[in-house]
Amino acid sequence: MKRTARTRQGLRFITTTAAVTLALGGLAGCASDSAPAGDGDDSAASDITVGVAMPTETSERWIADGNSVKEQLTDAGYSVDLQYANDDIPTQQQQIEQMITKGADILIVASIDGTALASQLESAADKGIPVIAYDRLINGTEDVNFYVTFDNYTVGVQQAQSLLRGLGYLDENYEETGLEDEKVIELFAGSPDDNNTGFFFDGAMDTLEPYLEDGRLTVGSGQTSMDQVSTLRWDGATAQKRMEDLLTSTYGGGSGQLDGVLAPYDGISRGIITALQNAGYGKTIEEGLPVVSGQDAEIASVKYINDGVQYATIFKDTRKLATQAVEAASAYAEGGEPEANDTETYDNGVKVVPSYLLESDIVVKDNITSLLVDSDYWTEAEIESGVAE
Predict the structure, then answer these.
(1) How far is CA 234 from CA 114, 230, 283, 387, in A?
(2) Same domain for 256 and 270?
(3) From its phi and psi, is residue 375 left (phi > 0), alpha (psi between -120 and 50) or beta?
(4) What is the distance in angstroms between the CA of the first residue and the CA of the last residue of the chain?
(5) Is the separation of the CB atoms in 229 and 265 below 8 Å?
(6) Could you say which residues form the signal peptide (predicted)?
(7) For a tag on the chain, would you pick the N or C end, based on fewer CB atoms within 10 A?
(8) Which of 3-7, 26-30, 63-67, 91-95 has the lowest mean pLDDT?
(9) Domain of 46?
(10) Cα angle vertex 380, ends 285, 323, to 5°?
């Protein structure tokens, strides 16, 4: 059954420090059994420790997330225990266990494997510690209290729309151009142990389906199922190897028609692009390089887009995601419940987790400045160099 895009409620983006200070002004105590009662001023925040578990430092995106969450929590007066697990599940399990043992009052968790933390979250629940799932839903447990993320189905829709625009089927307003040309694409998906992967893929495939059905698009390899196209741990080298194998098996090593590739993440996109360039498809789209989508607006890929190498990425402003995580933490800190704008979509197999969904944007060369520079996400110098300062 297809998922359908939902009408979004209006998003509320409040300066984090001010929002949390207001929330903590009436602090009566943390939801954790170990949290001391507040006295009604900002000093109460310093008595609350928030454990923040991030999956890896190998991705530019997760470094930015960790820094944003920590900075905003610290500005609000919380003590913060930030840990990265280097994409190793046992390490993340151990880190969360240590946070609980050391007296964390609230947990914010971006999981590596959404099914691997049930035991740790049960321990948190036993101690009254609320758990906020950060961008990746934690599955198979009732002990996750809230979820902050982007509208992941819509992110998948946008990935496909960007590919269709790059191929000429949609215009700059993402409306049909009437192009009837037949083109060949390949599909890549994210890590099968990440709950978001299915939403991204479903959104993309629902959007591409009419073009696949009427024959304007063909998947050259015939590989269209999640188990065929997924990329474990979102690894760019793994994606590059699969693209190289596809070029050998389906495209004569680089001589066959290939017009575009659906890629769900910038690290995967760059691996795909490397394989295509090495196979002789050209260094830029203008020279014949297939159109490649992406996600996360990583600086190396933003430079690629600016240089005409990668066609598009999806911008998910992690500063706003961090803000929502801190607002959720502040709600629990004062003994309340965070505001949800979705209470139907994210079923983790045990419960529907109340969620707050944020919006995302398609970035192409023409709107890099308005979306990324004007918002102070990246500077012009960083885009020119492809390196974060």
Answers:
(1) 14, 8, 24, 21
(2) yes
(3) alpha
(4) 45
(5) no
(6) 1-37
(7) N
(8) 3-7
(9) 16-144+318-358
(10) 105
List the structure tokens of 39: 């006295």
Q: Can you give the CATH number for the domain in which 41 is found?
A: 3.40.50.2300
Whether this model's pTM surpasses 0.90: no
Closest CA to 103 of 128, 86, 70: 128
Residues 308 and 175 in one domain: yes
Residues 331 and 226 reside in one and the same domain: no
Q: Contact 115/121 with Cβ under 8 angstroms?
A: no
Residues 167 and 196 in one domain: yes
The span from the CA of 318 to the CA of 329, in Å, is 16
309 lies in the same domain as 165: yes
Residue 3 lies in a domain: no
Tell me how many domains the chain contains.
Answer: 2
Query: Which residue, 131, 115, 105, is CA-closest to 38?
Result: 105
- pLDDT for position 29: 37
Could you tell me whether strands 361-363 and 313-315 are parallel, antiparallel, or unpaired per DSSP bridges?
A: antiparallel
Q: 217 with 308, same domain?
A: yes
* Whether residues 115 and 127 fall in one domain: yes
Two structure tokens written together for 34: 């170990």
In one-letter notation, the amino acid at residue 115 is T
pLDDT (tens digit, 9 = 90+) per residue, 155-214?
999 999 999 999 999 999 999 999 999 999 999 999 999 999 999 999 999 999 999 999
d(CA 84, CA 53): 6
Q: Which residues contact 39 (CB under 8 A, 6 or more apart)?
A: none
